[in-house]
């Protein structure tokens, strides 16, 4: 029942995910928690740069990390980076353990928990938007996606993400992402998806009067559920 975390994209987002794994685990003592191994590699090339033709393919780095986690005994591997999901098919094919899809799980939770919502505001990296990872999944579920304007995406969303990656989680990046959230609300979004793992560090449960869905938390709950269904590895 060991969880592997394919992290480092970025470091604060990895820490946030691990905390949410702990929060999602029904535990009354240390021994009730799930064993976790973390591969946090901040040298993985920028995923958005790769998807927009400005940088190298990060797949070899992701495959290496997944192999290290599998070798360390991980029985399920979580990847707390939305944009990295554009490259995960090749990574999944290289290991023998499951790797949950945070995007599919997030869309499934939206349909199950918010059945009256028809339009979803998406706050994500430019790479995630360009790859249409959420747009395709939301459309298949009968939902419309509302994305920021080009100017808001560059100035507000990308600006906020860059600040978190630099270790800043104060008022300035919060104001930036709230500006983007307000734009999506004004254009008809019925809820918001914090579709970059840096963004839950800035957003609460509500923003611009809308519910915020946190894919990091969704992935944590999914991963813990899968891990708890697996046998405990014997101590050798």
Automatic annotation (TrEMBL):
The cross-references to SUPFAM superfamilies, in alphabetical order and at most eight, read: Aspartate/glutamate racemase
Domain of life of the native organism: Bacteria
Q: Does the keyword Oxidoreductase apply?
A: no
- NCBIfam families assigned to the protein according to its UniProt record, in alphabetical order: asp_race
Q: What name appears for this protein in its UniProt entry?
A: Amino acid racemase
EC number, as in UniProt: 5.1.1.-
Instruction: Give any GO molecular function from the UniProt entry.
Output: amino-acid racemase activity
Which organism does this record belong to? Streptomyces antnestii
One Pfam family assigned to this protein is Asp_Glu_race
């Amino acid at each position: 029942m060991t969880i592997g975390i394919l992290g480092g994209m970025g470091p604060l987002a990895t820490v946030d995910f691990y905390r949410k794994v702990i929060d999602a685990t029904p535990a009354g003592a240390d021994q009730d928690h799930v064993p976790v191994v973390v591969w946090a590699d901040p040298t993985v090339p920028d995923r958005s740069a790769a998807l927009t033709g400005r940088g190298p393919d990060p797949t070899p780095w992701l495959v290496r990390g997944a192999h290290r986690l599998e070798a360390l005994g991980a029985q399920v591997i979580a990847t707390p980076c939305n944009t990295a999901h554009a490259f995960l098919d090749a990574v999944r094919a290289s290991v023998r353990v499951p790797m949950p899809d945070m995007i599919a799980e997030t869309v499934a939770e939206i349909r199950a928990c918010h059945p009256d919502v028809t339009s979803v505001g998406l706050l994500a990296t430019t790479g995630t938007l360009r790859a249409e990872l959420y747009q395709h999944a939301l459309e298949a579920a009968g939902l419309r996606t509302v994305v920021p304007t080009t100017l808001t995406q560059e100035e507000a969303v990308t600006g906020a993400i860059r600040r978190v990656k630099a270790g800043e989680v104060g008022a300035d990046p919060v104001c930036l992402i709230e500006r983007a959230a307000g734009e999506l609300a004004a254009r008809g979004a019925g809820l918001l998806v914090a579709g970059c793992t840096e963004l839950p560090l800035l957003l609460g449960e509500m923003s611009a009067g809308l519910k915020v869905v946190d894919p990091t938390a969704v992935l944590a709950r999914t991963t813990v559920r899968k891990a708890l269904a697996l046998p405990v590895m014997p101590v050798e």
